[in-house]
């Protein structure tokens, strides 16, 4: 169950919100100010932060800025009084996931937190993607760089396509960074994280009284991105009935809030991304052809890692440096056997899978060199040129998946295998001591115990 951190200087509010969320099944931690909140974030895995805007010692905006820099995968929800709504909108432009105003309905807060938790679940494989650079010198990546350089400062809509884990969000951020809009907001929307009945209000905002629970007006993501860039990730998940409204907003640069009659005009550069085959969705009647051509003014196709293996040594070097710093290690390189194994593997999870593997390898490395023998057996068993059936491979290599299993089922099983191996090794190396294993894995003892129960693992005698 997701772990929510509540940050508010008023004790009663912390107690009320904690009790409400615990009834919903959430794990809850509270903090009285931003400094306490950062201390919690540094020690405990948190999925969602709910923070007051105005607090002593460290305001909600400063906390948001620090969280964005240090924990960019954790959604931050702002709670604000009506008189400071402008500051809340400023927070959204600075990267806050959402905001609600006092007094608020408990159901409204529950929905926003549930949406944020779902977004975190979808994004959790992309930890620190915001700070990661594009890495690669292969011909296919040089072609991507050339396209980015040519279109970055134009107003043209860009459609980024590629398999999951190929770095589509990084390309979107690089386009924004190189444009003249770089000092304006880059607003990201994960379309897969939004319930279908909320997509319109999420994109275009709503007026007071537009629907039950709309106790005030609220700007949508198009308004927040005015003058900047709007990145619609997983664009293939937009409901068909919403696609015509999105098309009009793109063509006319105007729209109305839900429940509103005033037409709003904005200056927004749109970038969309998908790992779906939009032309197949068009054939099935699930995606509008006119919207597709409006989005794909500039198509950017990202190659899978298996088609750019020349970049693997550069990526390995980059991830070793990244996780050396984050984990306090002093790993310098991989040995020749390990590099050959990495080059021979099919990488169905693309760069994301390679990054996860390198984080694990750096974490458990006993010296300055990652040896081939330390790589997972399933990875080392892959032979050069061997086909890698996507339905049978996860982050650890060959995963026995039921015939006809969906991608979600395969990913879920692969994740469970990876977690089981990491936890099993941590327990082995700490003599079965759950507390020490949790510290080694940098998760809370309670979270580790829950995972051990889920995976059928047991600690030794020294669990205290």
From TrEMBL:
Residues found modified as 4-aspartylphosphate: 52
Record-given protein name: Acetoacetate metabolism regulatory protein AtoC
GO biological process, one term: regulation of DNA-templated transcription
Compartment list: Cytoplasm
A Gene Ontology molecular function term of the record: sequence-specific DNA binding
Location of the Sigma-54 factor interaction domain: 134-363
Organism: Anaeromyxobacter diazotrophicus
Domain (Response regulatory) ranges: 3-117
Entry annotated with the keyword Acetylation: no
UniProt-listed Gene3D superfamilies: 1.10.8.60, 3.40.50.2300, Homeodomain-like, P-loop containing nucleotide triphosphate hydrolases
SMART domains per record: AAA, REC
Pfam families: AAA_lid_14, HTH_8, Response_reg, Sigma54_activat
Domain of life: Bacteria
Keywords: Activator, ATP-binding, Cytoplasm, DNA-binding, Nucleotide-binding, Phosphoprotein, Transcription, Transcription regulation, Two-component regulatory system
One Gene Ontology cellular component annotation held by this UniProt entry: cytoplasm
InterPro entries (UniProt xref): AAA+_ATPase, AAA_lid_NorR, CheY-like_superfamily, Homeodomain-like_sf, HTH_Fis, P-loop_NTPase, Sig_transdc_resp-reg_receiver, Sigma_54_int
């Amino acid at each position: 169950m997701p772990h929510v951190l509540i940050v508010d200087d008023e004790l009663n509010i912390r107690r009320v919100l904690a009790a409400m969320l615990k009834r919903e099944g959430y794990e809850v931690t509270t903090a009285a100010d931003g400094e306490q909140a950062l201390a919690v974030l540094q020690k405990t895995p948190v999925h969602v932060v709910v923070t007051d805007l105005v607090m002593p010692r460290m305001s909600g905006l400063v906390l948001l800025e620090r969280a964005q820099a240090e924990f960019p995968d954790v959604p931050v929800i702002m709670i604000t009084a009506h008189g400071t709504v402008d500051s809340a909108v400023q927070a959204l432009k600075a990267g806050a996931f959402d905001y609600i105003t006092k007094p608020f309905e408990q159901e409204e807060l529950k929905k926003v937190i549930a949406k944020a938790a779902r977004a975190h679940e979808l994004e959790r494989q992309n930890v620190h993607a915001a700070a990661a650079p594009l890495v690669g010198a292969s011909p296919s990546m040089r072609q991507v760089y050339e396209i980015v350089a040519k279109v970055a400062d134009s107003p043209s809509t860009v459609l980024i396509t590629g398999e999951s884990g190929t770095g589509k969000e990084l390309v979107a951020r690089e386009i924004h960074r190189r444009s003249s809009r770089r000092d304006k907001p880059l607003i990201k929307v994960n379309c897969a994280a939004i319930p279908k009945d909320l997509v319109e209000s999420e994109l275009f905002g709503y007026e007071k009284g537009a629907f039950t629970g709309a106790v005030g007006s609220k700007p949508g993501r198009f308004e927040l991105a005015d003058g900047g860039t709007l990145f619609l990730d997983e664009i293939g998940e937009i409901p068909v009935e919403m696609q015509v409204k999105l098309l009009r907003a793109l063509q006319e640069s105007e729209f109305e809030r839900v429940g509103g009659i005033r037409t709003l005009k904005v200056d927004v550069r749109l970038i969309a991304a998908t790992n779906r085959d939009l032309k197949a969705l068009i054939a099935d009647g699930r995606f509008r052809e006119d919207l597709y051509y409006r989005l794909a003014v500039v198509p950017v196709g990202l190659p899978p890692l298996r088609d750019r293996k020349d970049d693997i040594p550069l990526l390995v070097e980059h991830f070793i440096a990244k996780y050396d710093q984050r984990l306090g290690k002093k790993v310098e390189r991989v040995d020749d056997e390990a590099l050959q194994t990495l080059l021979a593997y099919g990488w169905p999870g693309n760069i994301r899978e390679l990054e996860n593997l390198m984080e694990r390898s750096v974490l458990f490395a006993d010296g300055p060199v990652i040896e081939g023998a330390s790589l997972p057996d399933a990875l080392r068993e892959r032979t050069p040129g061997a086909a890698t059936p996507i339905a049978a491979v996860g982050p650890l290599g060959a995963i026995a998946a039921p015939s006809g299993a969906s991608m979600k089922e395969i990913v879920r099983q692969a994740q469970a295998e990876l977690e089981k191996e990491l936890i099993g090794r941590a327990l082995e190396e700490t003599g079965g001591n759950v507390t020490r294993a949790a510290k080694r894995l940098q998760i809370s003892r309670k979270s580790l115990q829950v995972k051990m129960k889920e995976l059928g693992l047991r600690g030794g005698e020294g669990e205290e």
